[in-house]
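Quick bug: RNA polymerase Rpb4/RPC9 core domain-containing protein output formatted oddly.
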Amino acid sequence: MSGEEEENDAELKIGDEFLKAKCLMNCEVSLILEHKYEQLQQVSEDPMNQVSQLNLFKKVFGLAGYKNPDAVRQVREILSRHQLTEFELCVLGNLCPETAEEAVAMVPSLKTKGRAHSDEAIEKMLNKMLNDLSLVKRFE
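Here's what came back:
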């Protein structure tokens, strides 16, 4: 992004490094950290180190909206079906909006960034996506 352009997430002006990056939802990061924590437990013999690691990981795990690895995979699959950027996908996956209006308020680019659909078509797509996500959450 040139020095003259101002970042604006509503228009997906978030910097080239973010547009090209693979983003992770909090629940995906939580799964990675949980695996890392299990590895550290196996190699650490210092009980105080294990306790401090456990406290850190408990704080991080509290950020995850989905805890079941299958649910995390399903959430990414559902969001990936809708031609979202990685940024949009992760914001929606992390914040879990309940309505189409909430989703657009959280991610304004859903209506503005190069989508040639009518407002009604966008709302229908968002409602379908949010319904699918609510089913995952309900059965997690």
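Actually, after a second look the formatting is fine. The longest helix spans residues 119-138. Closing.
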